[in-house]
Amino acid sequence: MATMLDIDISGDGQEPLSGSQPVFVLVWLFALGPGVRDGDPGSDQIIRAGWFTLGSDWDLIMGSTADYWRPPIYLNFIRTFWQPDPAIVNGTDQLTIYATRLKWHLSAGTNGHIYVGGN
Question: Where is 7: in which H helix or E strand?
Answer without folding.
Answer: strand 2-10
